[in-house]
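Lab manual, section 2.4: Encoding a predicted structure.

Procedure: take the sequence of the chain (306 residues), apply the prediction step described in section 2.3, and record the output as structure tokens. A sample record is shown.
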Amino acid sequence: MMKKRHLTGFIALGATAALALSGCSSDGGDNGDTGSGDGEAMGTITLGFLPAWTDGLSTAWLLEDQLTKLGYTVEMTDLTEAGPLYTALAQGDVDIYPSAWPELTHAEYMNEYGDDIEDLGTYYDNAKLTIAVPSYSQFDSIEDLKGNGDLLDGRIVGIEPGAGLTAQTQDSMIPTYELGDEFELVTSSTAGMLTELDTAIQNEEEIVVTLWRPFWANDTYDVKDLEDPEGAMGEPEGLHFLGTSGFAEANPEAAELIAGIKLDDAQYAALEDTVVNEYEGEDDKSAAIDEWIEANSEAFDTLVTE
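Recorded output:
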């Protein structure tokens, strides 16, 4: 009989960031003591994610549900930047990053930490970075931005400074389209970017923002992706589950379940919409996952439904 779902810990951001940077182990973070078995003997798995990046928020709660049903104790660790998360994953302070972009967006982190990280599987294979504007905008291509810096106040509104999307925009898109003399990439947070986007749309003003797909905001806000004829924002890539080195050997049941998770566009969109929008304001997203599983009981081969 499957163990009832429970969440054993939600570690505060400040303590987590210090933990990730210092290399100290979190409770249950050492997989060498976990091993396989039933019930409590399955051990503890720590999921590290960035709540503002809602792909990871959604899949973290999906894994919390699934791993708990297998008999693991699951701890959730939230951070605000990718760098400390990759550090914590490589050091074993978190066991799984449930939605990484290692092929392009996070390639810099993989180059630095990849020897201490293992790929547990790709759950979605058509993710991409975008530059977007409101659908009413006169602009249709990134090329159109050149010469229009004054109209846009010289700003491209971005997200977190340490995000791969930020680096791709700053280091590839802006120089490729020769926008550096007219535009500044303004970074803050995903929430800050969305607030500016929402305000601009309400006032029917021009704005350029950095976005990505899949992401619920593309459906919530009336936006369009600018064409990228030079391919400066990169090719589509996969969204991966990453584990700390040795995870699969220490947790074969968990690794088998995770490797089987494959979501198509409709399944992923429904998962993110349910977690982020239907259960907005709820700290515990367990009910959202229950609802999604009920509607998607055959979403992937290894799905545990009870």
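Check your result against the sample. The mean pLDDT is 88.
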